[in-house]
Structure formats: C-alpha cells, structure tokens
Amino acid sequence: xxxxxxxxxxxxxxxxxxxxxxxxxxxxxxxxxxxxxxxxxxxxxxxxxxxxxxxxxxxxxxxxxxxxxxxxxxxxxxxxxxxxxxxxxxxxxxxxxxxxxxxxxxxxxxxxxxxxxxxxxxxxxxxxxxxxxxxxxxxxxxxxxxxxxxxxxxxxxxxxxxxxxxxxxxxxxxxxxxxxxxxxxxxxxxxxxxxxxxxxxxxxxxxxxxxxxxxxxxxxxxxxxxxxxxxxxxxxxxxxxxxxxxxxxxxxxxxxxxxxxxxxxxxxxxxxxxxxx
Length: 277
What we know:
With 277 residues, the protein is an alpha/beta fold. It has a single domain (42-268), classed as Glycerol-3-phosphate (1)-acyltransferase (3-Layer(aba) Sandwich), CATH 3.40.1130. The chain contains 9 helices and 7 strands. A 7-stranded mixed sheet has the order 1-7-6-2-5-3-4, sandwiched between helices.
C-alpha cells in the first residue's frame, strides 16, 4: 500500500521542527478556528442543555470507541502502573504525551480502568479544536467534558476558574503539556509550565502518563503500521510545602519530564536524544 503523501509531509515537518527546536509548534494542517467568546462555553456543565449534549456525545463516543478497539484501528497492549491512578485520593492534573488526534481515547481507557466513577475526567483542548470541527468530531470536541482554551482574555479567565474549581472538587483534568501534537512521535518533548501551575496552586498532584508505541502488522488508511499502545502511569508528583507555587510548578515540570524520559529510555532501549542542526 502506498504511503500517504500528506503523512510523509507531516513526518518531514516533524524532523525539521525537531532539528530547529520548535517543539511547541503544530505540524498538522488543521482548519482555522474562530475565537471563543465570553460566556460561550458552559465549562462546568451547569445548564440542562449542556448535560443532555454531553450524555448524547458520550453515547456516540462509546460506540466509536468500541468500534475502533474491535476493528484494531486502535490497539492497547496494556497499562503499567494503574495503581498510581486508582489509589489517588484527590483530584489531579493528568499529563500525557500527545501524538495522535485520538490518543485521548487511550486516556479514557485508562480513566475507566481506574474505576474512579464518582470523579469526572476532563480534557483541555485547543481553541481551534472546539470551534472548527463539524459533525461527529465536532460533537465530541464540544461536549465530551472538554475544556477549550481561548485567545480571548475574558474567556481564558473563565477557563482558568473552571479548571481550578474542577480540581478542587476532586476531578481529573488532562493536559497535554507539550502543547503540540506530533503524529506518531515517540520521544517526550519539552514541557510547558501551565499544567503544573494548576497543580501547584490547587494543591493537587500531577499524574504523569506516558504512552509508548510499537508497530503492528496491520496498516492504517495512510499506509503506515497501526501503533499498539502501552500506557505507563508514573507515581503522582506532589508539591513541596517549602516551595512557592511558581517554584513548585517548575519542580513538578522537571520531575514529570524525568519520569517520561526514564520510561522512554527503558521501553525503547535507547537514550533520549534530539536531532539538531
């Protein structure tokens, strides 16, 4: 099967961006999105209409999720360190490497395996994902407990307030701290501080999750091997009572990266090195 020229172009762009150290830049040609306006997003799902839309979106997502697992479109080899999630007694900021548009389904798989039924699992998404996708994927982006960022200052304040509230209520918030999504990229990328700032300021742990991949014998629609995922859950990273919020955010960020790096090097059996010019 001939490989997709679009995917090959994305891989070339990833190589270029890695060499230039542009780790936080997106490589996909996503459609442009509009700015989310204040009051547009019911972040805490207070409205009855929001609750109905969420229930319906989850019904659709469940059917799709079961289908891609059944047909081998998404393959999960297993979870390592599940107890680190299952034993959490509070809310947490969940971090994960971002390498596929559907990797959040793997995180949903992890959340359900943890059996935290009374605490919800929210996902931070970028603004364009919330505003630009029509149809089925748009339904999921807007209604499956998503928390869209916004380039509007007032809307961003609403987002921050909502995240703080959800964490303090004991819920889990998934953040991709690399900021960018690089297709099938196996290395951990440098991390942004925002996710860890949320954890430090709300006195909740960071749960570092890193997904590793292996090629299967099956090809996807682009002519590349379907990836099988192993979900690795590190031990929760708690704040240091002797440090300020800002110092804790920086410390948690460094420790998270070290956990990811250790998993990467152990599973793939090679040192973590980036291509440079």
